[in-house]
Design goal:
Blueprint (H helix, E strand, L loop, with lengths): L1 H7 L5 E6 L4 H17 L4 E6 L4 H6 L7 E6 L2 E7 L4 H10 L2
Helix pairs in contact: 2-4
């Protein structure tokens, strides 16, 4: 989990997506997240984490619904939402923390 600490300990917003390959809602978020990553460029970061392959981390963060999206800035969670989100909503959240 120390690697996760390095990922989120940035002074830019980091959007984390906990997903699973078998989850249909997670699959529909792939293109949305690609769009968000392209739009924010170097003002933020988008990271996808497979909940099945990182079960200990998902459990520690109480991820029970997929997809679960979180925004971290400077090591602190500043936003969290479960379920599908659209690119406009996610961009708005990230812009709040740029």
């Amino acid at each position: 989990m120390s690697k996760f600490g390095e990922l989120i300990d940035l002074n830019i917003p980091v959007l984390i997506d906990f997903y699973a390959d078998w989850d249909e809602a997670s699959q529909s978020m792939h293109e949305v997240l690609r769009s968000v990553a392209a739009a924010i460029g170097d003002k933020g970061k988008v990271i996808k984490i497979d909940a099945d392959k990182n079960k200990d981390l998902a459990d520690a963060l109480r991820v029970t619904t997929l997809p679960t999206l979180m925004v971290y800035k400077a090591g602190e969670m500043v936003w969290r939402q479960s379920g599908e989100q659209d690119a406009v909503t996610l961009m708005g959240v990230i812009e709040e923390y740029v």
